[in-house]
Amino acid sequence: MAETLRRNLIGGAWVEGAPTPNFNPSDDKDIVGYFASASEAQVNDAILAARAAFPGWRNSSPQTRADLLDLVGTALIARKDEIGELLAREEGKILAEAVAETVRAGQIFKFFAQEALRIAGDLIASTRPGVDVEVTREPLGVVGLITPWNFPIAIPAWKVAPALAFGNCVVLKPAELTPACSHVLAGLLDDAGCPPGVFNLVMGRGSVIGKQLVDHPEIDAISFTGSAPVGQQIAASAGPAMKKLQLEMGGKNPIVILDDADLELSVAACLNSAFFSTGQRCTAASRLVVQSGIHDAFVDRLTTAMAALKVGHALDSSSEIGPVASEKQLIENLAYIDLAKVEGTQVIGGDRLERERNGLYQAPALFVGASNRMRIAREEIFGPAAAVIKADDFDHALAIANDTEFGLSAGICTTSLKHARAFRQNAMSGMVMVNLPTAGVDYHVPFGGRKKSSYGSREQGRYAIDFYTAVKTSYVFAG
Which domains does the chain have, with CATH numbers? Predict the structure, then answer.
């Protein structure tokens, strides 16, 4: 076991810890690896190492930071097949999606390599004679990054890359369920010559390590992606210390299908939105708001398409949907299937499936005849399940779409430019998709939502600088 233990990276050294096995959700006999769980003392060491490294890194040349990030991006893309297979084994995402996610992580690093060279400021004319005003951006300091299990290489990438690009030092705590990809990322940064302490990896339980990151006085900011309840706990804990926060949380994303929509396009968009990646995306559409005139034809066509989807081992090239990521998540999903029956919907699919390998397989589920008052239409179900809600007209559909405490992504399928425009203007979400799935976003544009879905500055693209830097205004009297 000692030879295969994946260790934590603290202050430029690979550090041992209590070995914890990581299992493949496609096959419970396949152990992905053993990972070192960091102790509280080691987390403290990582934070202090980042603090000690900060003065040198914040004053490093933008070219130095750009070169480091570009090297890592190049390595991720070059090793996409190897890392993609590892990702598929540890998270259960089908291989094609896992490889694509790895490439995206590489593209993110390369994008922020260039952003490191484009940190701009402003010279503003003062209202007073002889006074110069300069507005600049400076790094925050030490940033704690807490990432989820559903995108185990892309989300660490889109947090780590901008943090380093803009001169911050990092302590990354990946999800306990999927540490392997973050361990690979740590290795790539180390191999690329990242200075000791600039990037630190601490693996283990969120209730221990995550809490320590949030509470530690030497952590200046926290960027978290995960569930809304945990995000709210972080806000409550970090608020009194006035730490800067960026929280990306849950979603109950709607996609509206109007009577004038292209039926084939609408079914494809909803199939992708609700069920691809096993529904384990915060941008997944779990409310399909369908106008009455197209409702029955849409349900019939979507049900047929669902039945044709192949659920199987993530490494099987014929699989279109992989397993659920964990036994705990599968149990929660199945409990919502039972709840849907109690709440009075027609449940199509949703059963636990047996396959040649003993894994965590579930058939996609559709809840027909749902209403927006039901729990299945209000609570996030992080799995392959969607509720169909009938709407009378566009205004009714828009009202249903907005009637949620979340506001991450929303979509509409229509051939009406008038309705598409009205939906874009009035959907209360951070992202709007027209004739596209609600999931699947570009890496160079801002990502985030409204209401209980997000708190703080946007992630990704040029907007990432708003979180990872502080603005300073300087006044100089030139005489």
Answer: 2-249+453-477 (3.40.605.10), 253-434 (3.40.309.10)
